[in-house]
TrEMBL record:
Name this polypeptide is given: Cystinosin
Family: Belongs to the cystinosin family.
Native species: Megaselia scalaris (Humpbacked fly)
Signal sequence, start to end: 1-20
Gene3D superfamilies named in the record: 1.20.1280.290
Database matches in SMART domains: CTNS
TM annotation in the entry: 128-148, 168-188, 208-228, 240-259, 265-287, 299-323
Length: 328
């Protein structure tokens, strides 16, 4: 009989613990609001509380003048909780253009969970937001199409004479590095977890269009390289200088992979190294073609469409950044 009473008490205690469990999250973690206008989001409570909890929204110091939250503090107790799932509305007032992060304190302690971090973007002009989006898609299209004028010229001429092989070699390696970075952060859960652990309040920087562009760039560059094997190419080949540079990049990659295998760095760090290699290649890849054009005193075999589309994409990308800088 005593044993059965102990079991009953244990079950009651367990149920009490379960009933005390609750979870908090925000209805959105990212909100965009215009200056002098308001937007709303909700604090969502799941489960019952058995004692009062105090939820406070704390703005980063540099963001104090950018936006106001009303209320900035919510007291939840058994009296104002009617159902297991409750929502508490909060209003955001934009005051000055900029970006700020709001962290959540529960009973005086910061909660570093991603679903309790709010990122607020305050913009000057709503129209510019949509103009920026349109410009972004235009330069994405321009950069994506830019590969094909060169492929078409090679096909029409049945020749790749005038197309610098160093440019192609650097380009394919650069886009492979870019693809590794994007695919890793977008599709591999383990790397996403490493990113979340390293940047608890950060947003994954890779979007689907980044992955599509990178993989498409590898595909299109591979076609151009294939043309170099089947069409006339004269005595063109990858130079010793380009081979040395690519050999240096290969050494960096192999060493980095060894460091990952030895648990010295994370796979996320390896992907960032890949992205730095892509950046370095972007800075130098056009130089061999420019030197070749200068020496030949000719651009025959080199597509002006490629350059115009690449230039258009780059110019629109910079325009988008300037618009965003003004708007935010």
């Amino acid at each position: 009989m005593i044993v059965s009473k102990q079991i009953v008490l244990l079950l009651i205690g367990s149920l009490a613990i379960v009933n005390c469990e609750y979870s908090l999250k925000l209805s959105t973690n990212d909100i965009t609001v215009l200056v002098d206008q308001t937007k709303n989001f909700d604090l969502l409570l799941n489960g019952f509380v058995n004692s009062a909890i105090n939820v406070t929204f704390v703005k980063a110091t540099e963001g104090i003048k950018l936006a106001d939250l009303n209320p900035s503090e919510i007291l939840i107790n058994t009296e104002n909780q009617n159902n297991e799932n409750e929502s508490f509305p909060i209003e955001v007032l934009g005051k000055k253009a900029g970006h700020l992060e709001v962290e959540t304190q529960v009973n005086g302690e910061f909660q570093n969970k991603k679903d309790l971090v709010l990122r607020i973007l305050v913009a000057n002009n709503g129209t510019l937001i949509y103009v920026s989006i349109v410009i972004g898609w235009i330069y994405f299209a321009a950069w994506s199409i830019s590969f094909y004028p060169q492929i078409w010229i090679n096909y029409k001429r049945k020749s790749v004479v005038g197309l610098n092989f160093d440019f192609l070699a650097l380009n394919i390696v650069g886009f492979i590095m870019y693809s590794l970075f994007n695919v890793g952060l977008f599709w591999i859960p383990e790397i996403q977890k490493e990113y979340s652990a390293k940047y608890p309040t950060g947003v994954n920087p890779v979007l689907l269009n980044d992955v599509v562009f990178a993989l498409h760039a590898v595909f299109a560059t591979t076609i151009a390289i294939y043309q170099c094997f089947i069409y006339e190419r004269a005595d063109q080949r990858v130079s010793v200088t380009a081979r040395s540079i690519l050999g240096g990049f290969l050494a960096v990659i192999l060493i980095s992979m060894g460091l990952v295998a030895g648990d010295v760095i994370l796979w996320l760090d390896f992907l960032y190294i890949c992205s730095y290699i892509k950046l370095a290649i972007t800075l130098i890849k056009y130089i061999p073609q420019a030197v070749m054009n200068y020496r030949r005193k000719s651009t025959i075999g080199w597509s002006i469409g490629n350059i115009l589309l690449d230039f258009t994409g780059g110019a629109l990308s910079m325009l988008q950044m300037m618009l965003n800088a003004h708007n935010y």
